[in-house]
Design a protein that fits this description.
single chain; mainly alpha; two-stranded antiparallel ribbon; two-stranded antiparallel sheet; 6 helices; about 50% helix; about 5% strand; disordered C terminus; protein-cysteine S-palmitoyltransferase activity; transmembrane helix; transmembrane; PFA4/ZDH16/20/ERF2-like; Palmitoyltrfase_DHHC
Length: about 280
């Protein structure tokens, strides 16, 4: 059973234990066996992996604790707002989207989470590994965490493979057999984990390039099928082009795209669409 958002749960403890286990194996077993902690190369690799592990822990903690963005209780969509060209409506009836559980209207891209029992702005999905929703306010930090985790996983695999292939002198073999076994076990566990994280990262990069959430992707598949059935073409309304899509998620400063900070664009109640009139073409 999941705990309240932000609270420690078994999946979170499992993730922290995995980070600690991989860190210990890579820095205190693999590096000494392959490069040695007394060498410049050993110290440099241990320091680099320590910094990467610290970044993983920091971004993971923020993803767990940060509120993904809640819909203001008094939110009411302004249907007469000329700047808001898209208002999402219910599939049946055509009324503005309204959450019966939270008793308020839902802004575009917001969805109700059955686990958190609240409406989340630009909700992507609920992640059990952070016991939190991934939404408008914490999506970038979640993405950066996954990126750091992928880099750290493959970095650890390189250290593990190098230490296993490294030939240990005969006079040291008796004391290194146990560490070699521990390293191999960590590598066996880490390999599918690194692959899964890489697939997850690739999936979210694909979504970002189209300015979609996971929910919108699945909704888009149905909308595309219905459009093709009616002889029309479906276009995702929030797809602004690759560069603008990246800016909308990662921020306007390209040098901060991979930084472990969340520079959220907008308040989550309204998003630019491909139907918006550019400022340069608006009448004076």
């Amino acid at each position: 059973m999941a705990g309240r958002p932000g609270y420690l749960t078994l999946p979170i403890f499992s993730a922290l234990a995995a980070i600690g286990y991989v860190y210990y194996t890579a820095v205190f077993l693999a590096v000494p066996r392959w490069l040695g902690l007394a060498t410049a190369a050993g110290v440099a690799n241990a320091a680099a992996f320590t910094a990467l592990a610290a970044a993983c822990l920091a971004t993971y903690a923020v993803a767990v604790r940060r509120d993904p963005g809640r819909v203001p209780p008094g939110f009411v969509p302004d249907v007469e707002d000329a700047e808001s060209t898209v208002h999402e409506i219910k599939r049946k009836g055509g009324d503005l989207r309204y959450c019966q559980k939270c008793c308020h209207y839902k802004p575009p891209r917001a969805h109700h989470c059955r686990v958190c029992k609240r409406c989340v702005l630009k909700m992507d999905h609920h992640c059990i590994w952070i016991n939190n929703c991934v939404g408008h306010e914490n999506y970038k930090i979640f993405l950066v965490f996954v990126l750091y985790a992928v880099v750290a996983s493959f970095y650890a695999l390189i250290l593990i493979i190098g230490s296993v292939l490294h030939s240990v002198p005969k006079d040291e073999q008796s004391g290194s057999d146990s560490s070699r076994s521990s390293i191999i076990i960590c590598g066996v566990i880490l390999s599918p984990l690194a692959l899964a994280l890489a697939v997850l990262l690739g999936w979210h990069i694909y979504l970002i390039l189209q300015n979609k959430t996971t929910i919108e992707y699945h909704e888009g598949v149905r909308a595309m099928w219905l459009a093709e059935k009616g002889g029309d073409l479906y276009h995702h309304p929030y797809d602004l082009g690759v560069y603008e899509n990246l800016i909308s998620v990662l921020g306007s400063n390209i040098f901060c795209w991979l930084c472990p900070v969340s520079n959220t664009v907008g308040n989550g109640l309204r998003y630019r669409t491909s139907y918006d009139i550019p400022i340069s073409t608006q009448p004076l």
